[in-house]
Amino acid sequence: MTVHETMTTVVGTLISEVRAGQTREGHASASFRVASNERRYDRGAGRWVDGDRLFLTVRCWRQLAENVTAALRKGDPVVAQGRLHTRDYDVEGQRRYAVELVATTLGPDLARCRVDLLRDRREGVEGAGPGAPEPGASPA
Known about the structure:
Blueprint: E1 2-14, E2 19-22, E3 28-42, E4 47-61, H1 62-71, E5 77-91, E6 94-108
């Protein structure tokens, strides 16, 4: 088995529901399938045409997995960034390939949808919790 990986960004659409789970250590995990379709303008035909398609599995861990599970559904447009893993393996003498994206950042594609944000205010971040100074306030 050969494994290759590189950082990449994928823009696509969820084509499966998010599958939530946990690691043996109890950390949240989530995975789903994404389809990314190339669209290009064909000047000769005077219209947009579909090009190549990429199908891949996206995996998320910990807080990102919890947020993805709560926020995303099949059909949602997304932008995902992370490490792209491609594996090749043999099944009964035939070479097969699998492509996965282990996401570090993921969100809705705001070019294709609108969302209402639920902001997570964390203590210890300026302007982000009870007792935190107001932005622009001088320290006491």
